[in-house]
Write a sequence for this structure.
């Protein structure tokens, strides 16, 4: 029996219960039983990026991040926008991926959970940085799903059927691209 593909979920927010975390928890809830999702929880533990420290042995949290990316078949990001770009803590996470090869050619997409008319700066920066890392951006899987707090259940998961269906499609597209990459 083949092992299910793993999709690593990266939240760009440090805030517990953020809209970004809500989107990713919903992705976990709607994931097909033949897909395993892993929500990365080490953002706050990452040290400030310093190229002098990007050598073996890597700082523990950085090694864990890179191992999580390396062990995934695809990556799904959901990040807020602060001051027109990525939040500093998430940009720091991405900086730590530039020196490694773990995300290179890895199917990657993002969900923009910002209110309508917002979030484009974060998307543009994310696209630029992922380009430097060599990530395989799966364009049709890069979507906007605004989170209406009235559609979030007590479990912190979106109840809106349209949003849930859209997240299911995103996971499906990432899984398909990962399978294509594996076949070569």
């Amino acid at each position: 029996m083949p092992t299910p593909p793993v999709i690593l979920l990266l939240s760009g927010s440090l805030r517990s219960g953020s809209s970004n975390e809500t989107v990713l928890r919903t992705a976990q809830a709607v994931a097909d039983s033949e897909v395993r999702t892993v929500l990365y929880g080490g953002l706050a533990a990452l040290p400030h990026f310093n190229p002098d420290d990007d050598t073996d042995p890597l700082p523990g949290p950085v090694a864990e991040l890179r191992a999580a990316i390396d062990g995934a078949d695809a990556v799904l990001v959901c990040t807020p926008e602060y001051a027109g770009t990525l939040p500093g803590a998430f940009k720091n996470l991405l900086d730590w991926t530039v020196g490694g090869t773990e995300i290179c050619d890895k199917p990657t997409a993002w969900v923009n959970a910002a209110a309508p008319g917002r979030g484009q700066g974060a998307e543009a920066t994310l696209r630029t940085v992922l380009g430097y890392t060599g990530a395989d951006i799966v364009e049709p899987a890069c979507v906007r799903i605004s989170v209406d707090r009235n559609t979030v259940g007590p479990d912190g998961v979106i109840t809106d059927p349209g949003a849930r269906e859209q997240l299911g499609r995103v996971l499906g597209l990432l899984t398909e691209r990962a399978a294509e990459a594996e076949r070569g």
About this structure: Strands lie at 6-11, 36-39, 74-78, 107-112, 136-137, 143-144. Residues 161-183 form the longest helix (23 residues). The chain has a mean pLDDT of 95. The radius of gyration is 16 Å.
